[in-house]
Amino acid sequence: MATPINASVRYYRRGTTRVLWVPTIASKNAPTRAELDAGTALEGETGAMSGWQTSSATVPTAALGSRFTPTVPGEITAADSSLTFWASKDGDDVRTLLVREARGFIVWMDEGDVPGQPMDVYPVQVTSQAKVRELDQAAQIMCQFAITSEPAENVDIPAATP
Hints:
CATH class: Mainly Beta
Strand content: 35-45%
CATH architecture: Roll
Largest sheet: 8 strands, antiparallel
Oligomer: single chain
CATH topology: Pnp Oxidase, Chain A
Helix content: under 10%
Order of helices and strands: EHEEEEEEEEE
Mean pLDDT: 96
Low-confidence stretches: none
Number of domains: 1
Structural class: mainly beta
C-alpha cells in the first residue's frame, strides 16, 4: 500500500501571513535575518493581493517515429502581481514607500515569520501606483510589480539574531 501524503495543518491566511518589502537582499536564496529585519512589514495595510505565483510551460518534442508527442518542461513565468493597500486621507501611505521604478524584494512568509518554515522571495520593480476609485469602498492604492528574475521559493526563514 502506498504511503499517504502528510495531513496538512490547515490555517486561515489573515492574521498569519507576513509580507515584507525588503530593499536589499544579497542572495535571494538565503536572505539573512538582518536583511529581513531591515524591510517593511506590509500586511497591516494590505487589503488585497493578486498574482504571486509561478507557472511552467511545456514544449512539445515530436518525433517522426511516433504519433504521440511528448513534452518537456519549458519556460517558467510569474503571474502579473499586485498588492492593494489602504490609502490615507493625509497622503502618508504606501505611496511614499513603493514609488514607481523602485527595485527590491517582496517576501512572502505564508505561515508566519517562523524560523525554519518556508518563504518565497520575489525580486521586483514597482511599475505603478494606481488609485482605486470605487463608489462605496474605502480608498485604496494598487501597487503593481514586474517580477525581474525567478523567485526563490520555499527558502528557509532564518532564525532571529541573538
